Amino acid sequence: MSVESELPDSRKGEELVESSITEIAATTRGRSDRLEIPESVRPIRIDQHQLIVIGLVHVLAFLAFIPWFYSFTGVVMGVASIFLFALMGINIGYHRLLTHRGFSCPKWLEHTLALLGLCMLQGSPARWVAIHRLHHKHADKQPDPHTPSVSAFWGHVGWVFLRNREFYEVGNFEVYARDLLRDPFYARLEREFLWFWIYFLHAVLWLVGGCTIGWCRTGTFAGSIQLGCSLLVWAVFVRTVFVWHSTWAVNSISHLWGYRNYKTTDNSRNNWFVNLLAHGEGWHNNHHAEQVSASHGHLWYEFDLSWWVIRGLECVGLAKNVVRPRCWTAPDSAQQSAPPLP
Q1: Potential cystine with 146: which of 68, 159, 201, 219 (Cβ 3.0-4.6 Å)?
Q2: Is 105 within a domain?
Q3: What is the largest CA-CA distance in the chain?
Q4: Which residues contact 314 (CB under 8 A, 6 or more apart)?
Q5: Quick check: 8 pLDDT over 80?
Q6: Quick check: is 94 in a domain?
Q7: Rounded to whole angstroms, what are the CA distances from 81 to 87, 88, 211, 292?
Q8: Do 287 and 336 contact (CB within 8 A), yes or no?
């Protein structure tokens, strides 16, 4: 989620953020269990668009604390939209389908899931996939773009605010997301920031839809605007911020705290709290051990909602070639070293 053109200079704010990042990185130097920020981030340069957009959406989300923006419909639609756009779009679409190819499905469904993921403002599918594959290749090593081995803050959100050359060089997209860019649908999304405008359009649709429902309910202009704004705040801004932090928590918390079923070469952990926030993504040690598996829950008590949705798609014939964990056919594989990745 970034734009190439420059914004007007704001050196004071940039210097403040840069100073904070530098201090955080400096506190980790000289400690054997800590890493410095990736070399691809140096020299440090603030991604002003990321800073402005993420900050603005957070501010708009805080409108939820103003009573005028509250409505029962807005809250319900906000919760429902988490399942629609985060679970279906990010977890199943961006992550388990596009990044790891844990299953296959018809192109119309794949593209629909990708469009739902775009409505979470986490960047284009190709960029998201490239960053995530880069993470797996160098998990908790210095090139890892968001390892909390630098610091918990860096792993959670600090990495988002600095320009990383790995995210902008076309060559890296060719290496890490070549399979996606062969599809004209995904290649087109990279042009003229079409993915960003899709997010903007979906926000407008929520506003217009809410205004229409409000007019039908109340027959007044005030009632129409109030419900429209309520849906915009709860079903777009609050939902976006909640899912951002849920996704970032997988990068940070799930590499710091939790239990391990597998002896992987990274610090991945299974974390119940993150799992509840992210609908199955919290079984992160399992995922790092078997990246292609469509189910991140490997043991009977590791509930994975995203897996059960994929299983449902499989039952109706919309998901095929579904990859299951090895331990389901070889129960003794848990607690062993991670098997070679396909």
Answers
A1: 159
A2: yes
A3: 66
A4: 103, 320, 322
A5: no
A6: yes
A7: 9, 10, 18, 27
A8: no
